């Protein structure tokens, strides 16, 4: 087993074989541009929350082939030329990266990252970037759905034990926090990222004592002001809640307050209403009710609509594994080649219009209505072109082009920020709190119609007329080329 911490081999083998074939061909230093984006929104949601940039930056800044990596490659059956391996030994990322800020509300087809560099380095990093950004964006989006339903309630991330291994738990916890969760139960995530940590106790605590009451008392002695008691080990209404109330009253006599109870099974709507009544009748009006048990945004919405009296929601499995859609399906596509002193747009054709790439180096502008401050659409434009804010702007749907709208009195936000230039980071990493606040503020840019959980309106992501035309021309050119090559 390898012992060191290099991440250069965290890639698909075909990236290294393409690097090698390019090197043999003498083409490994040709410059290319790639876009990283996704094609379809997850969970039937109307938007996604971009996350994963910080992890991507860490990766690119420290990307090296270690001696162990080189040795491993040398032992592969491909028998790579030693001169190639020598070049990998000196490998550093030297490219340019433009990216959206973490926490940005994003949509299909728009580049989340635009990368320029040698084909060799851009192939190497594809897999890892898709891995980081696909997962974190997915989890941040899932968390955002839960935050929308929960409104002001407390949301606790409890997923580590059910997560797909370590990184998913840790970076997943970060993604949920930036999208609006209040705390995680994972202490390492707390220590790594500064996320607040919260927790209650498990059933084993109660089972470990001769009686539930004794267990509750012992726990309350240890944490007189932060006690949250799990009340469903034996019988929620007949035993758990009465014992919690007894301990709550004892704490009160000693000048403390029972912080909460946790319900982890049964009919959470009914039990929470009963619990609220029983706690209030005993004068424990400040005691909060925490619920957990296979929750997701649908059960949360349903429980709230049933009038459940729950203040805080502990959510694990269905959040951290993105249970109903476990992959975002992000893609990384070559969009331009640098040839004879200029960038030449490149396209990939598919019979599925969604899968036809948009050629060329591009940027993304968000169009904000000056009157109400709301986003009207995102416009993908060829790099170097800007929008004239003093003239009306016509947006049209890239597939159904008759769907048009004219916008006046707007301002634009360029969503792609410079992150790396010539392999050097030029972007100051915001703190996680800043990212969280930025994300929170992003939400007010969008009309409710795009944000609702069920059947949201499609937010316009359009191509500028020039870009649309370049795309159509390239499709036609390739179509003719293929016909000619086939002699038709
Ligand atoms: N009032 C309610 N309306 C809709 N869904 C609910 C309600 N109360 C609980 N649920 C959900 O129903 C499911 C209950 O699952 P299930 O019966 O398997 O487990 P449980 O009652 O938690 O018991 P255990 O954990 O012992 O299996 C959970 O997903 C829970 O979130
Ligand atoms: O249901 P989730 O959304 O995944 O939330 C996390 C679950 O993990 C714990 O259960 P577990 O049975 O592992 O341990 P426990 O003894 O603490 O209940 C907790 O009680 C929740 O039910
Ligand atoms: O603190 C808790 O209550 C907790 C933490 C992780 C998983 N389930 C519950």
TrEMBL record:
<keyword id="KW-0662">Pyridine nucleotide biosynthesis</keyword>
<dbReference type="InterPro" id="IPR036068">
    <property type="entry name" value="Nicotinate_pribotase-like_C"/>
</dbReference>
<feature type="domain" description="Nicotinate/nicotinamide phosphoribosyltransferase">
    <location>
        <begin position="156"/>
        <end position="348"/>
    </location>
</feature>
<feature type="domain" description="Nicotinate phosphoribosyltransferase N-terminal">
    <location>
        <begin position="9"/>
        <end position="133"/>
    </location>
</feature>
<feature type="domain" description="Nicotinate phosphoribosyltransferase C-terminal">
    <location>
        <begin position="361"/>
        <end position="471"/>
    </location>
</feature>
<keyword id="KW-0436">Ligase</keyword>
<dbReference type="InterPro" id="IPR013785">
    <property type="entry name" value="Aldolase_TIM"/>
</dbReference>
<dbReference type="InterPro" id="IPR007229">
    <property type="entry name" value="Nic_PRibTrfase-Fam"/>
</dbReference>
<comment type="function">
    <text>Catalyzes the first step in the biosynthesis of NAD from nicotinic acid, the ATP-dependent synthesis of beta-nicotinate D-ribonucleotide from nicotinate and 5-phospho-D-ribose 1-phosphate.</text>
</comment>
<dbReference type="GO" id="GO:0047280">
    <property type="term" value="F:nicotinamide phosphoribosyltransferase activity"/>
</dbReference>
<dbReference type="GO" id="GO:0005829">
    <property type="term" value="C:cytosol"/>
</dbReference>
<dbReference type="InterPro" id="IPR041619">
    <property type="entry name" value="NAPRTase_C"/>
</dbReference>
<comment type="similarity">
    <text>Belongs to the NAPRTase family.</text>
</comment>
<dbReference type="Pfam" id="PF04095">
    <property type="entry name" value="NAPRTase"/>
</dbReference>
<dbReference type="InterPro" id="IPR040727">
    <property type="entry name" value="NAPRTase_N"/>
</dbReference>
<dbReference type="Pfam" id="PF17767">
    <property type="entry name" value="NAPRTase_N"/>
</dbReference>
<dbReference type="Pfam" id="PF17956">
    <property type="entry name" value="NAPRTase_C"/>
</dbReference>
<dbReference type="GO" id="GO:0004516">
    <property type="term" value="F:nicotinate phosphoribosyltransferase activity"/>
</dbReference>
<dbReference type="InterPro" id="IPR041525">
    <property type="entry name" value="N/Namide_PRibTrfase"/>
</dbReference>
<dbReference type="GO" id="GO:0034355">
    <property type="term" value="P:NAD+ biosynthetic process via the salvage pathway"/>
</dbReference>
<protein>
    <recommendedName>
        <fullName>Nicotinate phosphoribosyltransferase</fullName>
        <ecNumber>6.3.4.21</ecNumber>
    </recommendedName>
</protein>
<keyword id="KW-0808">Transferase</keyword>
<dbReference type="InterPro" id="IPR006405">
    <property type="entry name" value="Nic_PRibTrfase_pncB"/>
</dbReference>
<comment type="pathway">
    <text>Cofactor biosynthesis; NAD(+) biosynthesis; nicotinate D-ribonucleotide from nicotinate: step 1/1.</text>
</comment>
<keyword id="KW-0328">Glycosyltransferase</keyword>
<keyword id="KW-0597">Phosphoprotein</keyword>
């Amino acid at each position: 087993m390898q012992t060191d911490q290099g991440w250069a081999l965290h890639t698909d083998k075909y990236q290294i074989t393409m690097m090698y074939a390019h090197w043999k061909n003498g083409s490994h230093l040709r410059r290319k541009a790639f876009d990283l984006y996704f094609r379809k929104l997850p969970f039937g949601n109307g938007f996604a929350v971009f996350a994963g940039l910080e992890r991507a930056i860490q990766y690119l800044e420290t990307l090296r082939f270690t001696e162990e990596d080189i040795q491993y490659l040398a032992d592969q059956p491909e028998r790579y030329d030693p001169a190639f391996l020598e070049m990998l030994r000196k490998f550093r990322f030297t490219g340019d990266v433009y990216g959206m800020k973490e926490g940005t509300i994003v949509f299909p087809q728009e580049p989340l990252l635009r990368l320029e560099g040698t084909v060799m380095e851009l192939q190497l990093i594809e897999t890892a970037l898709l891995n980081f950004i696909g997962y974190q964006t997915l989890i941040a989006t899932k968390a955002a759905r839960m935050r929308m339903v929960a409104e002001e309630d407390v949301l606790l991330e409890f997923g580590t034990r059910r997560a797909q291994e370590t990184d998913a738990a840790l970076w997943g916890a970060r993604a949920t926090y930036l999208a609006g969760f209040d705390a995680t139960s994972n202490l390492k995530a707390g220590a790594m990222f500064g996320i607040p940590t919260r927790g209650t106790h498990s059933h084993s605590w109660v089972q470990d004592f001769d009686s539930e009451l004794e267990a509750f008392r012992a726990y309350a002695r240890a944490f007189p002001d932060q006690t949250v008691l799990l009340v469903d080990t034996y019988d929620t209404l007949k035993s758990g809640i009465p014992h919690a109330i007894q301990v709550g009253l004892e704490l009160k006599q000693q000048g403390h307050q029972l912080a909460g109870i946790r319900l982890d099974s049964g009919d959470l709507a009914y039990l929470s209403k009963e619990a609220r009544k029983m706690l209030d009748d005993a004068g424990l009006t400040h005691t909060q009710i925490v619920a957990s048990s296979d929750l997701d945004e649908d059960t949360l919405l349903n429980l709230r609509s049933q009038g459940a009296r729950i203040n805080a929601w502990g959510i694990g499995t269905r959040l951290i594994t993105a249970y109903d859609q476990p992959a975002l399906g992000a893609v990384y596509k070559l969009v331009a080649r640098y040839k004879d002193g200029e960038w030449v747009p490149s396209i990939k054709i598919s019979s599925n219009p969604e899968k036809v790439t948009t050629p060329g180096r591009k940027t993304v502008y968000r169009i904000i209505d000056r009157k109400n401050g709301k986003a009207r659409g995102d416009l993908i434009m060829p790099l170097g072109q800007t929008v004239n804010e003093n003239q009306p702007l016509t947006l049209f749907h890239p597939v159904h082009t008759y769907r048009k709208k004219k916008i006046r009195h707007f301002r634009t936000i360029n969503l792609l920020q410079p992150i790396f230039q010539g392999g050097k980071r030029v972007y100051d990493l915001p703190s996680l709190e800043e990212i969280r606040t930025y994300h929170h503020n992003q939400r007010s840019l969008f009309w409710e119609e795009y944000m609702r959980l069920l059947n949201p309106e499609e937010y316009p992501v359009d191509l500028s007329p020039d870009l649309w035309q370049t795309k159509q021309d390239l499709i036609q050119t390739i179509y003719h080329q293929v016909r000619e090559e086939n002699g038709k």
